[in-house]
C-alpha cells in the first residue's frame, strides 16, 4: 500500500515540479511519476537531513516530507535542464 501511495504522490509532485520548471509539455504521466519518485529519493538523501523530517519513501506523508520531495523533484529537473540545455531555466 505504501508503494502505491509513493507512486501516486510522486506522480503529483513530479507533475507540479514540471510545471514550475516549465518542462510539462515534454513529459508524460510516466516521466512525471519517475521525476517525483527520484525527487523523493534525492530529498531523502540530501534535503531531508538539512530541514528535518522523513522522506515520503519511508511512508511519512506530512507537509515537511511533501515539501522536501517537491524540492527534490525541482532539483532533479534543474540538473536535467542544466545538462540538456546548458541553463537551469
TrEMBL record:
Its main location: membrane. The keyword Cell division does not apply. The chain crosses the membrane at residues 29-51, 63-83. It is a multi-pass membrane protein. GO terms for cellular component: plasma membrane. Keywords: Cell membrane, Membrane, Transmembrane, Transmembrane helix. It holds the Pfam family Transgly_assoc. It comes from the Bacteria. InterPro entries: Transgly_assoc. The keyword Repressor does not apply. It is found in: Cell membrane. Belongs to the UPF0410 family. PANTHER family: UPF0410 PROTEIN YMGE (PTHR33884:SF3). This is Transglycosylase.
Amino acid at each position: 500500500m505504501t508503494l502505491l501511495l509513493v507512486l501516486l504522490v510522486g506522480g503529483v509532485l513530479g507533475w507540479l515540479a514540471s510545471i514550475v520548471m516549465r518542462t510539462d509539455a515534454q513529459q508524460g504521466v510516466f516521466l512525471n511519476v519517475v521525476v517525483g519518485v527520484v525527487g523523493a529519493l534525492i530529498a531523502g538523501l540530501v534535503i531531508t537531513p538539512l530541514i528535518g523530517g522523513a522522506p515520503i519513501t519511508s511512508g511519512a506523508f506530512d507537509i515537511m516530507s511533501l515539501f522536501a520531495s517537491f524540492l527534490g523533484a525541482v532539483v532533479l529537473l534543474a540538473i536535467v535542464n542544466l545538462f540538456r540545455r546548458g541553463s537551469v531555466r
